C-alpha cells in the first residue's frame, strides 16, 4: 500500500482550498480521502508525483472530477479507481499505482489523445495553457522554490538544478500539494476539451490503434529482455582491442590525434585538407557526424564508405571515414556493452522504454538504451544481438516485414514496374537492386537516387545524394523517368496533396504537418518536402506494425509467447520452439488482413526465422525441434 506522510487536518483543508482555486470553483472539499473510501463518478482523473522517471516511488497521488481536485491520503494498488479513469501518460502513471491497463475497465490518456490529434507539444503544462487558458506553476519554478527554502534553512539541496518531488514536498509542502492537485484538475479538464473536439478520424485511430498499444508497450517495458552477461563481457574485451587498433590507425592518417571528440580535432582535420564549413552555436568549427559528412560531400556514412572503395576516393574522404568509424565503435561499446551492463537488473534483464509519442512518422522508438541504434548489417551488430536471449526454454522468433517500405511505395505509386516486382504467391524482386543492375551502380546509391527522384530532385541533386558523377546521375534520372513514371507522378501528387490540404495522412489516418514547406527559404522548403514524402511511406509502415502488435497480441499470449522488441521493420518474440511456426503463420494471416483493410493491392509478407538469440537465426523450416 502506498502511503503519504500524515499531514495536519487544517493543512489538508488548505490544500483542498488551493485545489479548488485552481479548478475555478466547485463543490466544497470533503475530509481527507482514505484507502477504500474514494468517492467517484463516472469519470475520474488520476495523477501521481514520483521521485524520478526510472525506479520511481510515488510520493503524491491526486484525483479530480468535474467538481475539482483532491489529495488522496493513500491508495491501495488493488483498488479500482473508477468506472472510467483518465491519466496524462498512462504508461508512466499506471504501473506505480499497481494499475494493469489490460484489466482497467475503461480509461483514457490525454497525452496520447493530444498526440493522435497532432498537437506538437504534449506536456500537461503546455497543453493546459494553450487549450484551457490555465497558467499554473511549472515544475522548474516549484523546484526553485524548494531550493531557496532549503538554503534559507541552511540545508544543502539534493541536486544542483531540478529537485525530486519528495524533496519539494518536504520543503514547500503547500506549493507542492497545490501543484500536484492542479495536475489532476488539468488532466480532467483537458480530457473534457479533447473528447469534445470534432475530430472523428483522430478518435477512431486513438481507439483502434494507439490506445490498445499502450498496455502492450507497458508489458514489454515490465518484462524486459534477457541479456547474456558472459557474451557481453567477451564482446567488451574484443571491442577494447578494436578501439585501440582503430585509434592507432587514425593516429597514422591524422598525426597528433588524441580523441575522436576533442576540440583540437577540427584543426587537425583542416590541416589535412578537410574543408569544415559548419559551426557550433558557440562559433567553433563543428565536428559532428553531419558536419564531417557535409565537409566531404556525403549524405551518409554508407555513401562515404562506398566512395572510399571507388576510384573517386580522395584523401579527406579516407580521414573522415576513419574518424567516424572509430566514433561508431566507441559509441557501440559505450551504449551496448558498458551502458547495457549498468542497466541490467538482478535477473540480467534490460528494461528499455518504448516511446509511442516521439516520432513525426508515428514509428515506435526505444530509449535507455536505444535498441534501434545497433548496426543492422555488420558482423559487430550481429555479435551485439547475440547477447539478447529469449526466455528460458524458448526460441527468439524474428518476424521481418520483407521490403516493407518498397512495397508501400509500390502500392502508393501503382507504377507497373514496381507492382510487377511484388507478385502474389511468387518471390519478390528488389526494385532498388533492379535499378542498380540496370545502371551498373551499387544498390545503396540507386536507392538514394530513386527516393531523390520521388522528392522531385534534379540531376545535380541526384548526383550529390547518390555520390555518383553527374553524367551517370543524368542517365539514371532518365532511366527512372522512362521505366517508373508512376514513381515520378507520385512525388508530384504528394506535393499537390500537401499544398491543397495543408497536411498529409498515412493509410492508418496518422496526420503530418510540414509548416516549413511554405518557408521562403528554398532549402528549408525542399527539406520539408523530403520529410513529407518519407512521412507517407514510413508513417504507413508504422501504422502496419502498430496494428499487427495490437491484433497479434492475443495470438502471442495464447501460444505462450512474449513480445520482446519492435525494431525497424521486425518483431522479436520469445516463444516455445513447437509454437514458433504456428505463431508466425497466425501473424502472417493477420498482416494480410491489415493490408486488405488499408487498401493494399501489393501483398505484405513476413519473413520468419528463429534461434537461441536475436543474432543467431535460421529459417523456420530448418529448425530442429
First CA to last CA: what distance?
A: 46 Å
Number of strands: 19
Estimated radius of gyration = 27 Å
Percent strand: 5-15%
The backbone outline, from C-alpha atoms, is: globular
Q: What would you note in describing this structure?
A:
This protein is of the alpha+beta class and 625 residues long. The strands form six sheets. Strands 4-3-2-6-7 form a five-stranded mixed beta sheet. It has a five-stranded antiparallel beta sheet with strand order 16-17-13-18-19. Strands 9-8-12 form a three-stranded antiparallel beta sheet, with no helix packed on it. Helix 6 (165-171) crosses helix 7 and helix 17 crosses helix 18. The chain starts with a strand and ends in a 6-residue tail after the last strand.
Short précis:
This protein has 625 residues and is an alpha+beta fold.
Overview features:
single chain; 625 residues; alpha+beta; 5-stranded mixed beta sheet; 5-stranded antiparallel beta sheet; 51% helix; 12% strand; globular; disordered N terminus
Please write out the topology.
Blueprint: E1 2-3, H1 9-23, E2 44-50, E3 58-65, E4 68-71, E5 74-75, E6 85-87, H2 90-93, E7 107-109, H3 110-116, H4 124-132, H5 139-152, H6 165-171, H7 173-195, H8 200-223, E8 225-227, H9 229-253, H10 265-271, H11 289-295, H12 301-308, H13 315-343, E9 349-350, E10 353-355, E11 365-367, H14 379-385, E12 388-389, E13 395-401, H15 404-413, H16 416-420, H17 431-439, H18 443-454, H19 459-466, H20 470-483, H21 485-501, E14 504-505, E15 511-512, H22 522-558, E16 562-567, E17 570-575, H23 580-597, E18 606-613, E19 616-619
Parallel strand pairs: 2-6, 6-7
Antiparallel strand pairs: 1-5, 2-3, 3-4, 8-9, 8-12, 10-11, 13-17, 13-18, 14-15, 16-17, 18-19
Amino acid at each position: 500500500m502506498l502511503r503519504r506522510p500524515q499531514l495536519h487536518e487544517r493543512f489538508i483543508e488548505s490544500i483542498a482550498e488551493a485545489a479548488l482555486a485552481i479548478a475555478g470553483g466547485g463543490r466544497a472539499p470533503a475530509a481527507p480521502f482514505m484507502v477504500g473510501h474514494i468517492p467517484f463518478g463516472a469519470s475520474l482523473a488520476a495523477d501521481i508525483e514520483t521521485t524520478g522517471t526510472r525506479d520511481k516511488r510515488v510520493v503524491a497521488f491526486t484525483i479530480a472530477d468535474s467538481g475539482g481536485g483532491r489529495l488522496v491520503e493513500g491508495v491501495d494498488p488493488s483498488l479500482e479507481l473508477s468506472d472510467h479513469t483518465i491519466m496524462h501518460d498512462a504508461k508512466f502513471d499506471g504501473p506505480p499505482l499497481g494499475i494493469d491497463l489490460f484489466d482497467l475497465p475503461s480509461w483514457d490518456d490525454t497525452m496520447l489523445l493530444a498526440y493522435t490529434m497532432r498537437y506538437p507539444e504534449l506536456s500537461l503544462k503546455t497543453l493546459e495553457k494553450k487549450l484551457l487558458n490555465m497558467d499554473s506553476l511549472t515544475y522548474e519554478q516549484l523546484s526553485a522554490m524548494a531550493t531557496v527554502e532549503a538554503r534559507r534553512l541552511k540545508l544543502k539541496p539534493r541536486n544542483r538544478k531540478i529537485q525530486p518531488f519528495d524533496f519539494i514536498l518536504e520543503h514547500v509542502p503547500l506549493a507542492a500539494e497545490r501543484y500536484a492537485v492542479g495536475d489532476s484538475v488539468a488532466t480532467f479538464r483537458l480530457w473534457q476539451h479533447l473528447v469534445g473536439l470534432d475530430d472523428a478520424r483522430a478518435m477512431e485511430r486513438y481507439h483502434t490503434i494507439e490506445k490498445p498499444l499502450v498496455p502492450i508497450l507497458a508489458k514489454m517495458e515490465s518484462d524486459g529482455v534477457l541479456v547474456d552477461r558472459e557474451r557481453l563481457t567477451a564482446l567488451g574485451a574484443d571491442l577494447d582491442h578494436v578501439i585501440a587498433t582503430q585509434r592507432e590507425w587514425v593516429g597514422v592518417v591524422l598525426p597528433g590525434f588524441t580523441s575522436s571528440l576533442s576540440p583540437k580535432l577540427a584543426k587537425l582535420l583542416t590541416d589535412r585538407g578537410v574543408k569544415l564549413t559548419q559551426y557550433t552555436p558557440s562559433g567553433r568549427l563543428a565536428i559532428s557526424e553531419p558536419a564531417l559528412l557535409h565537409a566531404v560531400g556525403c549524405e551518409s556514412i554508407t555513401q562515404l564508405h562506398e566512395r572510399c572503395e571507388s576510384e573517386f576516393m580522395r584523401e579527406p574522404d579516407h580521414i573522415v571515414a576513419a574518424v567516424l568509424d572509430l566514433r561508431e565503435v566507441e559509441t557501440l561499446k559505450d551504449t551496448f556493452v558498458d551502458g547495457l551492463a549498468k542497466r541490467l537488473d538482478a535477473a540480467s534483464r534490460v528494461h528499455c522504454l518504448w516511446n509511442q509519442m516521439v516520432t513525426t512518422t508515428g514509428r515506435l522508438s526505444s530509449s535507455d538504451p536505444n535498441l534501434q541504434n545497433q548496426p543492422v548489417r555488420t558482423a559487430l551488430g550481429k555479435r551485439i544481438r547475440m547477447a539478447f536471449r529469449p526466455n528460458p526454454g524458448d526460441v527468439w522468433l524474428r518476424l521481418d516485414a520483407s521490403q516493407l517500405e518498397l512495397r508501400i511505395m509500390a502500392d502508393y505509386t501503382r507504377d507497373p514496374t514496381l507492382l510487377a516486382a511484388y507478385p502474389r504467391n511468387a518471390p519478390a524482386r528488389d526494385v532498388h537492386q533492379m535499378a542498380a543492375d540496370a545502371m551498373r551502380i551499387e544498390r545503396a546509391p540507386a536507392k538514394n537516387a530513386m527516393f531523390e527522384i520521388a522528392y522531385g530532385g534534379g540531376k545535380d541533386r541526384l548526383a550529390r545524394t547518390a555520390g555518383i558523377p553527374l553524367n551517370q546521375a543524368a542517365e539514371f534520372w532518365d532511366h527512372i523517368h522512362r521505366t517508373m513514371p508512376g514513381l515520378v507522378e507520385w512525388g508530384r501528387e504528394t506535393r499537390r496533396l500537401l499544398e491543397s490540404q495543408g497536411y498529409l495522412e498515412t493509410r492508418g489516418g496518422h496526420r503530418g504537418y510540414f509548416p516549413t514547406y511554405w518557408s521562403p527559404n528554398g532549402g528549408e522548403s525542399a527539406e520539408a518536402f523530403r520529410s513529407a514524402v518519407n512521412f507517407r511511406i514510413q508513417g504507413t509502415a508504422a501504422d502496419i506494425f502498430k496494428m499487427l502488435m495490437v491484433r497479434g497480441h492475443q495470438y502471442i499470449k495464447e501460444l505462450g509467447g512474449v513480445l520482446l522488441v519492435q525494431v525497424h521493420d521486425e518483431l522479436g518474440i520469445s516463444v516455445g520452439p513447437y509454437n514458433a511456426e504456428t505463431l508466425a503463420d497466425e501473424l502472417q494471416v493477420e498482416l494480410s488482413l491489415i493490408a486488405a483493410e488499408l487498401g493494399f493491392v501489393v501483398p505484405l509478407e513476413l519473413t520468419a526465422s528463429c534461434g537461441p538469440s536475436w543474432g543467431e537465426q535460421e529459417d523456420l523450416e530448418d529448425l530442429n525441434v
